[in-house]
Amino acid sequence: MQMDSATHFTGELGFSHELEEGVGRGWGWNVPELCVPGTDFPHISVMLTLSDIVTGILAGVATAPQVSVTVDFRVRILHAPPPGPYEMDGSILRSGRTLTVGETTFVTPDDPKPFAVSIGTFVASPRPVDVRPEAFEGGPVRRGAPTLTVPFGERAGLRMFEAGLGEVYLRPDLTNATSTIQGGVLALLGEMAAQTLATAEGGKTYVVDDLDVRYLRAARVGPARSSARLLALDDDRATVAVAIRDTGMEDRHVTHVIAQCRALDA
User: Fold this and answer.
1) Strand, helix or coil at 177?
2) N or C: which end of the chain has fewer CB within 10 A?
3) What does the alpha-carbon distance between residue 50 and residue 118 come to, in Å, rounded to a whole number?
4) How many CB atoms lie within 10 A of CB 220?
């Protein structure tokens, strides 16, 4: 399935990308709508989403004609970027017959040192119907600022019922090339489940600066629901595990997240 960038949520993030001699380049933005509510700290799940696209396109070249499926992703924010644009460079670290591993680094225009880094693993989809669309690589997307007018979580239809417990839904504008809930949307659910639980338990605002996501199986029906548990907590750091299950498929465990959080006033 080819996603329509005019209606898909990724088309509102101000994201653009291109392939250049085997390297994926991308451009994104740090704006209030893409930050954790009530803070100026960027959503780490947004960076995962953009990394997934940048390196996923490269992985898709390796797995063609089958769609490349994300197995896992880890993103670390080394320090929060200033407001405004940032750049991404994605490259393939390993590409074999069944497995591809890619890395993305994030920098701001005025600082060559990365403020974030991610690494992801991809495999070719085993389903014969999951063939990548024509003109998959495409050309560069027109660059421009985000068009979001609401916070990212609201745009993605995230509902948090209580600390650690939330849901996201399968909608056409939130799906990937296999018509299942996009990995970045599941990462957002995991991020916010961890962030809200750490904040509630710690009595201060925590944000996720290290997100490790394992995609166990596709979320094909939805809604996908989070269940978070606190593994460790102190004045500066918290560690939270989040299980995400597809409630429309007998509560199958579809995504597992380990989130490292830090207190904003630390």
Assistant:
1) coil
2) C
3) 10
4) 17
pLDDT in tens, the chain (266 residues): 334 445 889 989 999 888 877 788 999 999 999 999 999 999 999 999 999 999 988 886 765 556 678 999 999 999 999 999 999 999 999 988 788 999 999 999 999 999 999 999 998 766 645 455 554 444 444 567 889 999 999 999 999 999 999 999 999 999 987 889 999 999 999 999 999 999 999 999 999 999 999 999 999 999 999 999 999 999 999 999 999 999 999 999 999 999 999 999 75
CA-to-CA separations, 122 to 46, 57, 143, in angstroms, rounded: 18, 10, 27
Task: Put residue 201 in one of left, alpha, beta given phi > 0 → left and psi -120 to 50 → alpha.
Answer: alpha
| Type of residue numbered 169 | Y
Contacts of 111 (CB under 8 A, 6+ apart): none
Q: Which two tokens stand for residue 116?
A: 């974030």
User: How many whole angstroms separate alpha carbon 181 and alpha carbon 225?
Assistant: 12
Structure-block tokens of residue 31: 């704006």
- Domain positions in the chain: 9-134+151-263
